[in-house]
Amino acid sequence: MSVPGILVAAPRSSSGKTTVTLALMRALARRGLRVRGVKCGPDYIDPAFHAAATGHPSVNLDSFAMGPALLDAVAGFAVRDADIVVAEGSMGLFDGVRAGEGRTGANADIAARYGWPVLLVLDVSGAAQSAAAIALGCSLYDRRVKIAGVVLNKVASARHRRLVEAGLQRVGIPVLGALMRDASLVLPERHLGLVQARETADLDARLDRLGDLAVEGLDCDAILAAAGGAVPVGAGALPCPPGQRIAVAADAAFSFLYPHQAAGWQAAGAEIVPFSPLADEAPDDGCDVCWLPGGYPELHAGRIAAATTFRDGLRTFAETRPVHGECGGYMVLGDSLEDAAGIRHPMAGLLPVATSYKARKLHLGYRVAHPIGDGLLGPAGLRLVGHEFHYATELTPPPAEDEAFCRVADAEGTDLGFAGHRRGRVTGTFFHLIALED
Site positions for Increases nucleophilicity of active site Cys, renumbered to this chain (predicted)? Predict the structure, then answer.
């Protein structure tokens, strides 16, 4: 589909990609353009901000976890009825895993596949002409990728901007905008990234402020003119639903469901029936399956423990129908959850695992898994690809093969042993599913 796109990326993390992306999205949407957001890589928080800025759903594109057919299906969903796609990168432009060309998970893979030029965000705090050397390196590193221009972020003064622009003029890379150093632009964060869009106070006002800054500081006409590329038509299919009516936990504690999963389920005719454990709601008894996404149950453990209607209803549901939990959902399916203060709260007791947020340790990376037995996600031996990002630890021993959900490896094939748990119709794992393959 010949909908033009632009990828907002940077040489490294914390350069201001999200600020520039949201500002550009809001400014273009104000012009009456149908803007669609894309997040490169395994991020389940930023797409909600994209949706708030544009008024339309955003999706993830991940060149490691998604095969070519699924990538094109998700990209096709993203550009449907759109005038322009604004994609946001993750980490640095070329950062990914060691894998074959086009399958590294790096932003550059997505830019190359769909021909989306890159708008490079440069954090120029502490640098002047040297910023041009970084931009030049990015423009030469991968010939598949075109750098359309740069946006300067955290500019200290008019003089500082002139010095940076002098360096970029020397190497022939256009400056398409600049944002001054402004601490008020920073969105609130917590341990897994930004505070969720649904929890960010005055989000609409914040987005309008960013839109104003884009109008003032970015050359939106030039950025629009630089956009390009295309997405193949009719290639691949979105994920199939695990049931016809799917009860999905959805509130501030359970919100990390990848948009392409929900879009695929609904496109296949399945109905998603949301319920809120924090409001002490049980899964709808008329549903075929129950799905507990990740989120922040560690911040709401006391309320979940006190939600007896939810916990009793979940146990009753699991007696006759499949239940699956991812990351935070997996923790809630366990016996107990220890919060940051060291208080242990009883959970659903459906899986033999106890977790702790007090004993924090970062777990981060892609996971390639093969289920031990047939289940909600498919038959034994199916290849599941997902991503793990959390600080919780398991207080109970690793699962034995007869109680494990799957055997997992990292992105480079290193065996990580058995993971997750299975008991009856209930399964759970710390990784978030992105794609599955027969």
Answer: 432
Q: What's the confidence (pLDDT) of residue 199? A: 60
Q: Are residues 256 and 341 in the same domain?
A: yes
pLDDT value at residue 280: 98
Q: What pLDDT is recorded for position 190?
A: 47
Residue 37 lies in a domain: yes
Q: Distances in Å between the alpha carbon of 392 and those of 100, 196, 347, 387, 433?
A: 32, 19, 15, 15, 18
Instruction: Tell me what pLDDT residue 9 has.
Output: 98
pLDDT (0 to 100) of residue 365: 96
Task: Write out the residue range of the structural domain in which residue 333 sits.
Answer: 245-437
Specify the CATH number for the domain of residue 341: 3.40.50.880
| Residue numbers in the chain where pLDDT is lower than 50 | 190
